[in-house]
Automatic annotation (TrEMBL):
<dbReference type="InterPro" id="IPR010852">
    <property type="entry name" value="ABATE"/>
</dbReference>
<dbReference type="Pfam" id="PF11706">
    <property type="entry name" value="zf-CGNR"/>
</dbReference>
<protein>
    <recommendedName>
        <fullName>Zinc finger CGNR domain-containing protein</fullName>
    </recommendedName>
</protein>
<dbReference type="InterPro" id="IPR021005">
    <property type="entry name" value="Znf_CGNR"/>
</dbReference>
<feature type="domain" description="Zinc finger CGNR">
    <location>
        <begin position="130"/>
        <end position="172"/>
    </location>
</feature>
<dbReference type="Pfam" id="PF07336">
    <property type="entry name" value="ABATE"/>
</dbReference>
<dbReference type="InterPro" id="IPR023286">
    <property type="entry name" value="ABATE_dom_sf"/>
</dbReference>
């Protein structure tokens, strides 16, 4: 089972603090992460729980950026205890039978289980250094480095381009051109 899409839920949550201000923003995050189903009941407690989860996930990525593998693992293990996985076999939308990590509980619980289990899988399969924070100042958005050569340093092409242009201009200024 490829859990990268679940790990992307963590990145989406970390990079969406401005959308965690109300129920409409929460609904848009859930829709973008393919976690919202029509008729799904979203409560204010889900918003509060995902705000708290976001803070925990930010700490995981910041710790990974510092290179402290043991602290990342400790944080993820703590989150795995708080959000236990309850896998279920599911079949929908004409797809073959496949596993979903959880179908029960509050919406926030379902989101948290996916995000945390996805990150745990990335860390155990690929390494802590695959959890990144954008190196384009002042961005600091989270990303997952799934490149084959572990070369990703920016959250987007836009930030990479902006950082490269800034570096080019700095070199030109130093050389006096």
């Amino acid at each position: 089972m490829d859990l990268t899409s679940y790990a992307e839920l963590a990145v989406l949550l970390i990079n969406s603090p401005d959308r965690l201000t109300g129920m409409d923003g929460l609904r848009s995050i859930l829709e973008e992460g393919n976690r919202y189903r029509p008729g799904c009941r979203i409560m204010r407690s889900d918003l509060d729980a995902l705000r708290d989860l976001r803070e925990e996930l930010v700490a995981v990525f910041e710790t990974a950026a510092l290179g402290d593998e043991q602290a990342v693992v400790d944080r993820l293990n703590s989150l795995l205890i708080q959000h236990p996985v309850q896998p279920q076999i599911s079949g929908h939308d004409g797809e073959r039978w496949h596993l979903h990590l959880t179908e029960g509980g509050r919406m926030a619980d379902q989101y948290a289980v996916g995000a945390v289990m996805g990150l745990a899988t990335i860390v155990t399969d690929l390494g802590v250094d695959r959890l990144g924070l954008c190196q384009a100042a002042p961005c600091r958005r989270a990303y997952l480095d799934t490149s084959s050569n572990r070369s990703r340093r920016y959250c987007s092409e836009r930030c990479a381009s902006r950082a490269n242009v800034a570096a080019y201009r700095a070199r030109k200024k130093v050389s006096g051109q």
